[in-house]
Amino acid sequence: MQFEQKTYKNGADIAKSLEAETKKDLMSQNPTRQVSNETDKLMRKIEQEGFNILYHMEVKQHHKQMMQLEEKCDQELCFDLQ
To answer: Per residue in 21-41, pLDDT tens?
Structure first.
C-alpha cells in the first residue's frame, strides 16, 4: 500500500480503495458553499465573492481528486472493484 501512496497523486485514496476492495467514496467530501451573513449590502457582496472564489477552487480540486482515483482504478489497480 505504501507504493501506491508514494507513487500516485492522491495515492492514499488508491491505497484505501485497494485495502477495502472498493473505491473510496469521495462524494461524501463534496465542498460546500459558504454564504455571507454580513448585513451591509456592499460588504456582503464583497465577502460572498470571496466565498465563491474559494468554493470554485475547492470544487476543481475535488473533481481532480475524483478523476485521478477513477483513472487509476479503471487503468490497472482496482479493475475488479466497484
So the answer is: 566 666 677 899 999 999 999
